[in-house]
């Protein structure tokens, strides 16, 4: 409550970083709504290890028109199903609209692990849907979120439309396969593309290499650290001369390649 009041009284903040872990979810929602009222925020870093309603994220993104760096990690953004219930929790009562959302969040003991039958790519959809509100965005990080190929393809399409960004991190998204990786490597990410800890196998690594080879612009820095299943075939593709000519810096540390870094 004290932090919420401080945010309401001080709108000059430009850098906000919040870490949160599975407690007082209503307080988290109130805090995020308060941040949404700070018009000068340029850098927002959220590591929540929890879920938040999509209406909260939408409100946050709609108001941060000058955001330049957006980092969201270990966060599920849930939406309501056709019956008005939160996904993953059909037995819970539906939440009300944004105006009275926060009080109703208290005590909703949501299960920690979301159901595999629900669509948890909402976070990417929110970012893309609100993209026209923040044309200055240069750094985007969606970390540890289990993004799928379909949402990454939508993200790549958005990056082509908006003219690209400087840095993109999809670190720790282990459900990506060759198709999604190929499309995001084609996207106009200029300075840094982080695909570390994405559990790439040899076919995935070859898809990344093939996509980078034909990019019309080089990748400033490509991070593939921690993908220990790349294998010899993947490493061969990632160290091919044509590939290396289109990458300024390549990090293959902790890939069972004796911490090779080129």
N-to-C SSE series?
HEHEHEHHEHEHEHEHHE
Strand count: 8
What overall form do the CA principal axes indicate?
Answer: elongated
Quickly give the structural class: alpha/beta
The Rg value, from CA coordinates, equals: 20 Å
Mean pLDDT: 78
Describe the secondary-structure layout:
Elements: H1 2-9, E1 15-19, H2 25-36, E2 43-53, H3 54-63, E3 69-78, H4 101-105, H5 122-129, E4 139-143, H6 149-162, E5 165-169, H7 178-186, E6 189-194, H8 202-213, E7 219-223, H9 231-238, H10 241-244, E8 247-251
Parallel strand pairs: 1-2, 2-3, 3-4, 4-5, 5-6, 6-7, 7-8
Descriptive overview:
- The protein has 262 residues and is α/β, with parallel strands linked by helices.
- It is built from ten helices and eight strands.
- The chain has helices at 2-9, 25-36, 54-63, 101-105, 122-129, 149-162, 178-186, 202-213, 231-238, 241-244, and strands at 15-19, 43-53, 69-78, 139-143, 165-169, 189-194, 219-223, 247-251.
- An eight-stranded parallel β-sheet has the order 1-2-3-4-5-6-7-8.
- Strand 4 (139-143), helix 6 (149-162) and strand 5 (165-169) form a beta-alpha-beta unit.
- Helix 2 (25-36) packs parallel to helix 3 and helix 3 runs parallel beside helix 5.
- The longest helix has 14 residues, at 149-162.
- It is elongated.
- It starts with a helix and ends in an 11-residue tail after the last strand.
- Residues 89-117 have low confidence and may be disordered.
């Amino acid at each position: 409550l004290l932090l919420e009041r401080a945010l309401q009284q001080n709108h000059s903040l430009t850098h906000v970083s919040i870490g949160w872990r599975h407690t007082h979810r209503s307080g988290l929602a109130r805090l995020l709504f308060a941040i949404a009222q700070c018009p000068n925020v340029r850098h927002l870093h959220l590591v929540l290890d929890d879920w938040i309603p999509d209406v909260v994220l939408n409100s946050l993104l709609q108001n941060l028109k000058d955001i330049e760096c957006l980092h969201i990690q270990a966060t599920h953004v849930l939406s309501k199903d056709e019956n008005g219930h939160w996904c993953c929790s059909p037995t819970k009562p539906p939440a009300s609209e944004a105006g009275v959302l926060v009080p109703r969040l208290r005590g909703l003991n949501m299960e920690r692990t979301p159901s595999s039958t629900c669509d948890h790519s909402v976070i990417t959809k929110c970012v893309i849907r609100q993209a026209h509100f923040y044309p200055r965005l240069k750094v985007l990080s969606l970390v540890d979120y289990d993004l799928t190929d379909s949402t990454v393809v939508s993200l790549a399409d958005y990056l082509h439309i908006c003219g690209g960004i400087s840095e993109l991190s999809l670190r720790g998204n282990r459900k990506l396969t060759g198709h999604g990786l190929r499309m995001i490597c084609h996207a106009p990410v200029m300075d840094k593309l982080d695909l570390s800890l994405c559990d790439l196998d040899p076919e995935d690594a070859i898809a990344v290499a093939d996509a980078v080879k034909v990019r019309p612009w080089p990748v400033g820095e490509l991070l593939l650290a921690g993908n220990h299943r790349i294998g010899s075939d993947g490493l061969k593709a990632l160290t091919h001369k044509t590939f290396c000519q289109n990458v300024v810096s390549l990090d293959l540390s902790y890939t069972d390649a004796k911490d090779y870094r080129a």
